[in-house]
Amino acid sequence: EMAQDADVGSNSLLTYKLASNPSFSLALKGNTDGSKQPELVLDTALDREKQSSFELELTAVDGGDPARSGTVQIRINVTDLNDNPPIFTKSVYEALVAENLPAGSLVLQVRATDADAGNNGRVSYSFSNVPGAISSLFAVDSENGEIRTVGPLDFEEKNKYIFGLEARDGGGLVAHCKVQIDVTDENDNAPEITVLSLSSPVPEDAAVGTVVALLNVNDPDSGENGQVSCELGDEHFSLAVQAGPGGDQRPELVLAKALDREEAAFHELVLRASDGGDPARTGTARIRVGVLDANDNAPVFSQAEYTVRVPEDVPVGSVLVTVTATDADEGLNGHVKYS
């Protein structure tokens, strides 16, 4: 806009001056009537994120002597262009969580900033092309970047999750980051005892050291939570522990003391396996071992000597005395014949 001067002649001839500013300069365009049209020229690119407004002073000076001048303030507001993408504070966010974390628990929070203004600087968060298994376990808040659990975590099923997140501003510019969540083990599994094979009944004359049963003891927890010790409360049997596949234990149930079917026809064994967690978890298994009879008992008469007095004229065929003998064995081993 041109300045106006009510004088005439040389007193109204105007020149213009612009206060020094590195971003703007003043150009004077001559008109046919001899006046000059001031034009404000942009000399360098603007960056609203560095400076969002400028205050300029334009001075118009007439040709009189002494000269008179007038000034005007020019305020330039720089409007935003979506020239800045969101920027995450980290390229990789890491978290360590326990597997028994309740649903809805906060795992971590990501944050991205955008130097633009208004909608161009408003950031929303979302998953970046993740499989359904991730979205079934975790959720991201689009407004604040909080990642929370939505399903139960299981260390034994998977102990590490790595997935991508994106931050998108209102103008469509996108930034990406990685999230790594490590799941720590909790002692949430008791040892499991499986009987792989069982030789029952066991002959009562079986030698000490005879293998009676082959067992498998497994605890899917890790570290001390998965370290198992076994105990057996019967003096006739003991456990010889062998290493199995995948860290399992393969205890062998062996005969530790000679059996006697006449004392016990079977043994009810209770095997207990405890892990090293705090508190410890215990698994039990009941094993019934029968004892097979051996012919290790001779018949025993009810008396060592029988004395009978009979008259000399007793008829032939008369019963003089009945003797009895018993045998502690069973079946044919305990069937007694007399001669």
Automatic annotation (TrEMBL):
GO terms for molecular function: calcium ion binding. CDD domains: Cadherin_repeat. It comes from the Eukaryota. Its main location: membrane. It is a single-pass type I membrane protein. GO terms for biological process: homophilic cell adhesion via plasma membrane adhesion molecules. Gene3D superfamilies: Cadherins (2.60.40.60). Pfam families: Cadherin. It is found in: Cell membrane. Residues 3-88, 89-193, 194-301, 302-339 form the Cadherin domain. GO terms for cellular component: plasma membrane. Keywords: Calcium, Cell adhesion, Cell membrane, Glycoprotein, Membrane, Repeat, Signal, Transmembrane, Transmembrane helix. InterPro entries: Cadherin-like_dom (IPR002126), Cadherin-like_sf (IPR015919), Cadherin_CS (IPR020894), Protocadherin/Cadherin-CA (IPR050174). This is PCDGF protein. The gene is Pcdhgb3.
